[in-house]
Specification:
- The complex is a heterotrimer of chains A (630), B (193) and C (401).
- In chain A, 62% of the residues lie in helices and 1% in strands.
- Chain A is an all-alpha fold.
- Chain A folds into two domains: 483 residues, Up-down Bundle (Cytochrome C Oxidase, Chain A), CATH 1.20.210; 77 residues, no CATH class.
- The radius of gyration of chain A is 26 Å and the shape is globular.
- By secondary structure, chain B is mainly α.
- Chain B has one domain: Cytochrome c oxidase, subunit III, four-helix bundle (Four Helix Bundle (Hemerythrin (Met), subunit A), Up-down Bundle).
- The longest helix of chain B is centred in the first third of the chain and has 40 residues.
- Chain C folds into two domains: 99 residues, no CATH class; 183 residues, Immunoglobulin-like (Sandwich).
- In chain C, 53% of the residues lie in helices and 14% in strands.
- In chain C, the strands form two sheets. A six-stranded mixed beta sheet of chain C has the order 8-5-1-2-3-11. Chain C has a five-stranded mixed beta sheet with strand order 4-10-9-6-7, with helices on one face.
- The N and C termini of chain C lie far apart (94 Å).
- Classes of the chains: A mainly alpha (630), B mainly alpha (193), C alpha+beta (401).
- Chains A and C meet through helix 1, helix 4, helix 5, strand 1 and helix 9 of A and helix 1, helix 2, helix 3, helix 4 and helix 5 of C.
């Protein structure tokens, strides 16, 4: 019944696709349209919804361990009902606490902010903003999603194994992760974690290869690299980072798997565990840290760069101003991309590394602050003298900038090797990265969801609920993470199950309770988003073709979101995407598809530097006009 | 298959070939990670390192894979000159040489074991030999599958564009695994003893 | 619409799936309950009753809040509509949000100030070690710079959001780029960061790159980390620690001291770490099972303990535990050693007392420590029987001093 309806529906869609390109999928069924879809827009939606579900799960995990930190001495019977053996007598098991922390981190970093963010918006926007019918390889794209989905299922399934999920922290440093007897989570849970991660990396590589290939090969006529919106630059450089760094994680994981199951000694040496001397000799746990962080550091830029791109686009559209310093923005993204490969050692300052090498990593780390500062100032300059329209997307983009500043500045402390001695692995670090890559990237993702919701579902999300969601989340996130800096400055280590065992940490118990309630508040605020999101898919206000008066190509596609994106020919691009409020033009935006010959009143000298024909036209027009004036 | 569909696929070839190049970059990064891991590990202390002369089997397998690359090239050239029988012939040669390489690597492992160089080894520099060759063999398997695919395709009566494209993909990848092996072998040779 | 309908079913089906997952989760959880906890069933059921009551209470409150929000939303909408009907200006949400940002700026800045003063006074006291003072200076300089930037940029961000709120009457100022100001804000941060890098590097090098001659004159303390405790070993009269080899581990030889090395005969074992004030201490670290981290926040000391890879940290404590007690006005104050690298279930409670005392007190304390090579261990090491006498003599000699 349902499938029959869909077939009819797709048939009607076909009829709309007038004579242009020949259509590829003549028999779309429910399965090919919604499940094993090869349409980039559907895959984007699949990534988004899976990402949101994973995000909610990871958020619930964080609330669980926040409850433990706030009330370390109280038993909560419902925890036992909910978690069973992991919370005997209503109190979290210390090992399970570490599992919660680990899985929260893994899901948030990889499944939500890598796959959920890049996967959604790269898939949605790369073809739409560049003017392509679909990705370079739609099949690979579909495979990418299903690998990701399988990885999610495996990761979550680890909650159902006897000894619980992986619990060595999301960085899974061996020997803790390599020795099944070191902690319960290092048994079956760790194996599932590794399996899930290998599938995840495969998914990201397929996605990344596709994104790069699409950006380089499938741009529409006139769309040269310097006319691409900053979103695309962000996604493109993110994909390059992923393609170059994820294989390194695979290398580290392969060696770890050999250590775990074959008895090799890549990472293991001189180990006495629970009174038993292990035969392993000669390995180096630091080797894993090098391999892990060679991925791990680019990974944090994989998380933040798409968010930066989205924020740049959203802020330009809603300030009705061109993004300030487009070229500087691109160059700083490129600078971040290159530098991110040579800073990984700053995660390892206190591993006993050679002081000279530590010094080198410190220099590279602090250099990376320069392009970040340039980006921040350019965003501020974009707002300056703008005509700001506070859509929920714009508010989240502003929130991102605020978090990026607050979290980025503390990075200057942590990148300084001398200061890192005392701050390493304390709550200061937790506060730093939750602001700069956690909250900032999530805000970028939410800004993207609010902004491009009409392109995904043809409807608008409710604005008022968006405001409520923004304020509760924004304030909540600051209330949660700002006090954590001071805990870190008091030397409170992260990943501690309870602060009751040390006299000096007891003063933070009340602060912890406060943080937990702030966290619960911001978690509940997400209900406003979830309701808004799912309700608007079906009953939201119908969107117009270009609801935000934006310049980019995706808003020239029909509201119906057809397969192949444009019914007729793909439009040609004549200008960059940031001609907002151009003096001399009657409207405050000029879409990229409008040629300069139609905007004679507003053209500026540098608009046609590379185009002598248009320049000629313009000078002639100017001559004529000046005669008329005379 | 009508003409327009063929044209469309032809248009699609370019990005697919590009995808293959990108994939080769990722797998090169994988090996770059392994080899840099080897360097970091081996420089950890003086008693680490390969410490042996690599078995001769590796020389033989290198000769075999270089030869197979050459026959692959001949096959592709024949296909371009529309000599389909020769194409199939050389493709068969390549396939046989590829499988031969696979077994030579296995043989090299048995020689290593006889020399007392085990995978499970307190000197993990020696374990790395198995990792390098093992992960490379995974690539060889993928290459052999591509070869079989284009071989089967060459017996079907598919359009020349498609035949050539398939062969080109297989040949690019096969040359890549060849070069990869030479890189690994030279790397190991430079680090032996 | 049809698209939406089918999507609705999909959501519905997945919803059912999720629900079933949840139910199976709960049943699974309850399956294991009777096995692990053999408590009387009646009590459990009554406890679970109150529990469900509490949960439903909270859920009800949450639903109530949702309803109130929905009602407020409706009222606002109706108010908005009536305004429009009376041909007055509709509610300007853009303006309201810009005021929101303005308000957030003021409240937020006050909040940051409050945090700096109230929670800022709860942080660690001044460093109790020589190099820690340098770190603190570095920290303060960085803090001042970043606070200025923090306040300035946040004021600009929310200030611009407040001032430049949109209006129909105005067009934004078209400003695609300005090379001068862009160069300025590339170069200024670069210079500031260069200064920080230079001073940071110097501080870092002075802390971590201790000259060998100074290393030799320091008091050596050997710390072995394992799940979830620290084993401490002091050198005996010779001032040298014996070699270790984890393969020699036994229940009597917990850190695997190698007694082929004669330096190890007079080594001492201790329950806490005690060091003399104003004397350089070199802590030698190794882990036996997983990575741990030797963290003494009061001294700004941290270094990882890695299995198979010895590390060390050399520092000079400057404030004794007693002095710190008076300083912090806390008679029970103790310096504590934390483990700061996730190492397993009891990671949060892997502590050791670290005492800094005067040199005289230190000598006194050291003379009371027991030798590592105790009688049981000697029995176990039959090899050592020959050397037993000499070891005894050593010990006696040491005790006399």
């Amino acid at each position: 019944m349902e499938t029959a309806l869909i077939v009819n529906n797709s048939a009607s869609v076909h009829r709309q696709e007038v004579n242009g390109h020949d259509e590829h999928h003549h028999h779309e069924t429910f399965l090919t349209k919604y499940v094993f879809s090869q349409d980039h827009k559907m895959i984007a939606k699949q990534f988004l919804i899976t990402g949101i579900i994973m995000g909610v799960i990871a958020m619930i995990l964080s609330v669980l361990f926040r409850i433990q930190l706030a009330y370390p001495n109280t038993a909560f019977p419902f925890l036992q009902t909910l978690l069973g053996r992991f919370a005997p007598e209503g109190r979290l098991d210390p090992n399970f606490y570490l599992s919660l922390v680990t899985i929260h981190g893994t899901i948030m970093v990889f499944f939500v902010l890598t796959a959920g963010l890049s996967g959604t918006f790269s898939n949605l926007l790369i073809p739409l903003q560049l003017g392509a019918r679909d990705m370079a390889s739609p099949f690979l794209n579909m495979l990418s999603y299903w690998f990701f989905f399988t990885a999610c299922v495996i990761m979550l399934s680890s909650f159902f194994v006897q000894k619980g999920p992986a619990s060595g922290g999301w960085t899974i440093y061996p020997p803790l992760s390599a020795l099944p007897k070191a902690m319960p989570g290092s048994e079956m849970g760790m194996s599932l974690w590794l399996a899930s991660m290998v599938l995840f990396v495969a998914s990201q590589l397929m996605g990344g290869i596709n994104y790069i290939s699409t950006v380089l090969n499938m741009r529409t006529k006139g769309m040269d690299l310097w006319k691409m919106p900053l979103t695309i630059w962000g996604f493109f450089l993110t994909a390059i980072l992923g393609v170059l760094s994820f294989p390194v994680l695979v290398a580290g994981v392969v060696l770890l798997v050999f250590d775990r199951s074959m008895g090799t000694s890549f990472y293991l040496s001189d180990i006495v565990l629970n009174g038993a001397v292990l035969p392993n000799e000669g390995g180096s746990p630091i080797l894993f840290e090098h391999l892990f962080w060679f991925l791990g550091h680019p990974e944090v830029y994989i998380v933040i760069m798409p968010a930066m791109g989205i924020a740049s686009e959203v802020m330009a559209v809603n300030s009705r101003k061109p993004i300030f310093g487009y070229h500087a923005m691109v160059y700083s993204l490129i600078g971040i991309t290159v530098l991110s490969f040579i800073v990984w050692g700053h995660h390892m300052f206190v591993t006993g590394m050679n002081p000279f090498i530590g010094g080198v990593f410190m220099i590279t780390t602090l250099i990376i602050a320069v392009p970040s500062a340039v980006k921040t100032f350019n965003w501020l300059a974009t707002l300056w003298r703008g005509n700001i329209r506070f859509t929920p997307a714009m508010m989240f983009a502003i929130g991102l900038v605020s978090f990026f500043i607050s979290g980025g500045l503390t990075g200057i402390f942590l990148g300084n090797a001398a200061l890192d001695i005392n701050l390493h692995d304390t709550y200061f670090v937790v506060a730093h990265f939750h602001l700069v890559m956690g909250s900032a990237a999530i805000f970028g993702m939410l800004a993207g969801v609010y902004h491009w919701f009409p392109k995904m579902f043809g409807r608008l999300m409710d604005e008022k609920l968006g405001y409520l969601h923004f304020w509760l989340t924004f304030i909540g996130a600051y209330l949660v993470f700002f006090p954590m800096h001071f805990m870190g400055l008091d030397g409170v280590p992260r990943r501690y199950y309870a602060f009751t065992e040390f006299e000096s940490m007891k003063q933070w118990l009340s602060v912890n309770t406060f943080i937990t309630w702030a966290a619960i508040m911001s978690a509940l605020a997400q209900v406003a988003f979830l309701f808004n999101f799912f309700y608007s898919i079906f009953y939201g206000k119908k969107a117009t073709q270009n609801p935000w008066n934006a310049n980019t190509l995706e808003w020239t596609t029909p509201v119906e979101r057809i397969h192949g994106n444009w019914p007729g020919e793909i439009p040609t691009v004549y200008r960059w995407s940031y001609d907002y409020s151009k003096p001399g033009h009657d409207q405050d935006f000029i879409p990229q598809t409008v040629p300069f010959s139609q905007t004679m009143t507003s053209n500026l000298p540098h608009d046609f530097e590379d185009d002598p024909d248009v320049e000629k036209l313009q000078t002639e027009w100017l001559k004529q006009n000046s005669q008329e004036v005379k | 298959m009508n003409q327009s569909a063929v044209d469309k696929e032809k248009i699609n070839f370019q990005p697919k070939k590009f995808n293959l190049w990108l994939f080769m970059i990722t797998s090169f990064m994988l090996f770059a990670a392994f080899t840099s891991g080897f360097i970091v590990y081996t420089q950890g202390s003086a008693d680490k390192g390969i410490k042996i002369i690599l078995p001769h089997a590796f020389i033989y397998s290198t000769i075999v894979i270089v030869l197979s690359s050459f026959t692959m090239y001949l096959s592709f050239r024949s296909a371009k000159r529309l000599q389909f029988d020769k194409q199939k012939q050389f493709l068969w040669f390549t396939l046989i040489l590829g499988v031969g390489f696979f077994f030579l690597q296995f043989y090299a492992w048995t020689v290593l074991v006889k020399m007392g160089v085990y995978l499970i080894n307190p000197n993990a520099s020696q374990s790395f030999i198995y990792i390098f060759t093992g992960v490379h063999l995974v690539h060889i398997i993928a290459g052999i599958i591509l070869l079989i695919n284009s071989l089967v395709g060459s017996y079907k009566n598919s359009p020349q564009v498609k035949n050539l494209f398939r062969l080109e993909m297989a040949s690019i990848f096969w040359h890549f695994v060849d070069i990869l092996w030479i890189y690994l072998y030279v790397f190991l040779l430079l680090n032996q003893q | 619409m049809k698209f939406n309908k089918s999507f609705c079913t999909k959501i519905f089906i997945s919803g059912i799936g999720l629900l079933m997952l949840l139910i199976s989760n709960i049943t699974l959880a309850q399956d294991s309950t009777p096995a692990s906890v053999n408590s009387p069933t009646i009590e459990v059921s009554s406890a679970s009753d109150t529990m469900w009551l509490g949960i439903s209470y909270n859920v009800l409150i949450f639903l109530l809040v949702c309803i109130i929000i929905a009602v407020v939303g409706r009222i606002l909408k109706i108010y908005d509509l009536t305004l429009q009907m009376q041909s007055k200006k509709a509610m300007d949400w853009n303006k309201i949000m810009s005021f929101g940002f303005g308000l957030f700026l003021i409240v937020g800045l006050y909040g940051a100030y409050w945090e700096y003063t109230v929670q800022g006074s709860m942080i660690l006291p001044d460093a109790a070690s020589k190099h820690g003072v340098a770190i603190d200076e570095m920290f303060n300089a960085t803090l001042i710079i970043t606070t200025i930037v923090f306040v300035g940029t946040q004021i600009m961000l929310f200030g611009f959001a407040f001032i430049y709120r949109g209006s129909q009457l105005r067009k934004a100022h078209f400003l695609p780029h300005n090379n001068t100001i862009e160069k300025l804000w590339t170069i200024v941060p670069a210079i500031v960061l260069t200064i920080l890098v230079v001073f940071g590097s110097l501080t870092w090098k002075s802390i971590m790159d201790v000259p060998v001659s100074e290393q030799k004159s320091a008091l050596n303390v050997d710390v072995t980390a394992h799940q979830f405790a620290w084993e401490v070993r002091y050198p005996g009269k010779d001032g040298k620690l014996g070699l270790k080899n984890s393969k020699l581990y036994s229940s009597n030889n917990k850190v695997g001291v190698d007694f082929k090395d004669k330096n190890s005969y007079d080594d001492l074992t201790a329950d806490e770490i005690v060091v003399p004030v104003d004397k350089p201490v070199r802590v030698n670290l190794i882990a036996q099972d997983v990575i741990h981290s030797f963290y003494l926040p009061w001294f700004r000391v941290q270094i990882n303990a890695v299995p198979g890879l010895p590390t060390f940290f050399q520092f000079t404590p400057t404030i004794t535990t007693d002095a710190m007690r008076t300083k912090t006005d806390n008679p029970n104050f103790e310096y504590k050693l934390y483990c700061n690298k996730i190492c397993g279930g009891n990671h949060f409670n892997m502590q050791k007392v670290f005492r800094v005392v005067s040199v005289a007190e230190y000598r006194d304390w050291l003379s009371k420590q027991k030798p590592y090579l105790n009688d049981q261990l000697r029995k176990e090491l039959k090899m050592a029987v020959q050397t037993e006498n000499s070891a005894n003599k050593n010990k006696l000699a040491f005790n006399k001093i």
